[in-house]
Amino acid sequence: MTPTSPVSEGAAAERAAPAKRGRPSRRPAIFASALRLFRQRGFHATSINDIGADAGVAGTAIYSHFNTKQALLTEAIHEGAKRIRDGVAEALSTEEPDPSAALERLVRAYVRVVLENADMNACYVLEARSLESEVRVPLARSERSLRELFSAHLLAERPELSPDQAHTMVQMAVFALVALCVHRTRMTGDDLVDLAVSQVIGALRAPVPPVNETNPSDSNANPNQGSES
C-alpha cells in the first residue's frame, strides 16, 4: 500500500479507454461506486450491473473505462497503496532529528491517508485474495516494507525494545486501523483522525512486560535431572 499528494483520477485514467470527446467522464463515479460495493457486499457478490446502477450508468458503459471487474479491483488496490506511499513519503520529506516527533509525523500521515481512503483500504484487506499472484505478491512486499519503516521509527524512539517487540507493536497498533476502514464509525474528519492518532501513538508508547528469558525447552526437562540418587 504510496511523494506529495494523492494521484488524480485523471492520471490513472490514462491506462483506461478514453471517454468520448465533449462528454464528462463517469470514471470517478464508477470507481467510487465499485469501491463502496466491494466493501459492503464483497467482490464476487458485486456485479458490473450493480456498479453501473449505483454510479448511474449502464453496466456495459463501465467497459469503456475498465476492461474487467478484476481490472477495476486491481487498480483500486494499487491506487490505495500509492496514496499511502505518497502520504508517508511526504511526512518523511523533511528531516526530523527528534525521534518522537518523527514517529508522530509518520503516524499522523499514515492515519490520515488510510482513513481518507477507507473504501480502497477495505478492498485491499477484504479482497486481496481475489487478486492474481503477480499483483498480490508485490503488494505484500510493499506492505512488509511499510511495517519495517514503522518499526525502525519506533526503535529510534524506544531503543530498549527488541526488534520482535517493535514489529509486533506496529502490527497491533498501526495496522489495526484497517478495522476502521472495514467497520465504519459515525466519527469523521479531523475528529476521527485525531482520535485514531492518539490511540496509535498511545499503543506504541505503552509499557511492555519484561521478556521471558526462559528457554521453552527447559519446561520439558525432568525437575530431578542432575540430582544425585
The computed structural class is mainly alpha
**Percent of residues in helical segments?**
55-70%
CATH fold call of the largest domain: Tetracycline Repressor, domain 2
**Global outline:** elongated
Could you characterize what this model shows?
The chain has 229 residues and is an all-alpha fold. It is elongated and about 60 Å long. Helix 2 crosses helix 6, helix 4 runs antiparallel to helix 5 and helix 5 packs across helix 10. It has 2 domains: 41 residues, Orthogonal Bundle (Arc Repressor Mutant, subunit A), CATH 1.10.10; 129 residues, Tetracycline Repressor, domain 2 (Orthogonal Bundle). The N and C termini lie far apart (63 Å). The chain contains 10 helices and no strands.
Give a quick summary of the entry.
With 229 residues, the chain is mainly α.
Topology of this protein?
Layout: H1 9-13, H2 27-41, H3 48-55, H4 69-91, H5 99-116, H6 118-127, H7 133-157, H8 163-173, H9 178-182, H10 189-204
Observed structural traits:
single chain, disordered N terminus, 229 residues, Arc Repressor Mutant, subunit A, mainly alpha
